[in-house]
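re: ur question from yesterday

yeah so i grabbed the chain u mentioned. its 419 aa long if i counted rite. heres the sequnce exactly as i have it in my notes:
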Amino acid sequence: MGFLSPFAFEYVRSARKGPIARLIVVFLTANLTTVCLHLMRACIASRVRHSSMAIAVLASLLVHEPAWQGCSQTAEMRMACASIRFHQGTEPIGLFTLDLSSLPGRVNGELFPIFQATPYTHVSILTLTDQTSSEEALGNIILEVPAQDGDADGIPDFFEVNFSVQSTTRGSYTIQGYGRGVVEARWSRSAGHATGTCIFEFRLNAFQSLAVFTHTFELMEYFGPLRYNIGRGGVSATLSLARVAAEGSLQSAQVRLHRSADDPTHGLVFEPGAWLDEFSQIWPHGTNYLFRGDQPGNLYTGYFDFEDGWSGTPEADYRTWFCAVRDPNDSDGDGIPNLSDDPIADFRATRLWMRRAGTWLELGIEASAVPLSCQLLATARLDVPDWNVVLSAAVTNPSQVLLRFQPTGNAGFWRLRVY
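ran it thru and got these structure tokens back, copy pasting raw so excuse formatting
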């Protein structure tokens, strides 16, 4: 939503020369009220010389105020943790258990992402525990997790609860005192369920298996509305995300975003902040960047890093997440969502006009992108402004009359609000 700033239109009716119109454009870079009051004084003084006159101050030139100011818009936001949470694994005989972790000396179940290790995508620290003696052997695992993104939403299908998983991947492992070799991971999860089963088969060689462990694994995915307002200097927003197919939530009443300086129409920057989970634990984060592709054009995707993405341990873990924001709002129809559109350029293509039609004055709007909605507001004075809504209208034509009236000899001020 945007306000368009005033210019002055002075309509003078002369008994000798007939109706004439004189257009005075005032670029309002200074105080609006001061300029308009000076204009009113000049026009009132000229009443002495003319029998009747009407002053109309209209909205036409875009001020450097935020577009859509005060108008809340809603985008969709999806977050999926790039780490997988593994519960303790057991082998058929029950003599050993296996735990995964990203923390030395503490088990947190995290199989976490690794980059630039193609074809491998995830790693973890292993703790193999002998249940008869309580002795522990440490090791590590690196393996591939399915990365296909069939719906092209920026989040691999494996990490989205709505997709099922039936897949086998491979990697390698090392366990102190037991050896090293190839590990095969057999993944299984039903669509709509946040938990699934992963069976690890650790092999010493092509003919000999070390052990087979069965784990329950868990996905962490959140989805919900990102409600935002575009204002001076950026975007203020609130988010309310619910965990998909499990208990949990993420909330924030103070999200700050702005367009990327390098690529303003495609880049979206989340400024440093903090979110709260369902236990009111703080998830702080630094600056994060999302980017919009051309297909689909309303989707921003990227990695989102928290300083700590899980409150279950005192250490920082589960930090890297997939993030996707889909903004269906495109007020000017230019293919650029409002979240990263230029708020100034959006409304420079919209102007208000006035023309004389006999003894009447017609007030209208010219817009390069239709349809759009607008409100026309009016006030009788600017020193104590009291703007009243004259009409609300849907603009369906490139040039459309909004109001038709006859001059009354009184000063009037109009302002246009565009949605």
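noticed a couple things. The chain has three domains: 2-67+351-418, 73-78+222-326, 84-219. also Residues 2-67+351-418 form one domain.
anyway ttyl
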